[in-house]
Amino acid sequence: MTDRMQEPTLLVLTALADSPRHGYAIMQEVQELSGGRVNLRTGTLYGALDRLVRQGLITTCAQEIVHGRARRTYALTPEGRDALAAEARRLRLTLDAVTDRLAAPASHPTLETFA
User: In Å, what is the CA distance from 62 to each residue of 7, 12, 69, 93?
Assistant: First the structure.
């Protein structure tokens, strides 16, 4: 994955980084990881999970029947872990660049100069 990862994808992969989870647990973990900013709807989550399985970033590692419905448990694949690590590096580089710019003295007038 060389393109920038969308935030919901980043959060789903992060939710699976430490242990396999079923869909509802992924939804809860995404909400917690995002500080409540990202609330995935069921259809959105399962569409994303299907896409991530097709891309080989996650896999179904278990399935059980709960209250008459299939409940799948998903796990991060080695490729998914690599993609997540690459995105973390990309974000870290961007954050470092922002932090460096904010720490450096402004080389041109700012709005405060004109106030």
Answer: 26, 17, 14, 36
Burial of 48 (0-12, 13-18, 19+ CB in 10 A): buried
Q: Between these two residues, 112 and 11, which has the higher pLDDT value?
A: 11
Whole-angstrom Cα distance, residue 81 to residue 63?
Answer: 22
21, two tokens: 């989870």
Domain 7-99 of CATH type 1.10.10.10 = yes
Q: List residues bridging with 74 in a β-sheet.
A: 21, 60
* pTM tops 0.85: no
89 contact partners, CB below 8 Å, separation of at least 6? none
Residue closest to 59 by CA, chosen among 16, 110, 4: 16
11 CB-contact burial (10 Å; exposed 0-12 / middle 13-18 / buried 19+): buried
Lowest mean pLDDT among 1-10, 58-67, 90-99: 1-10
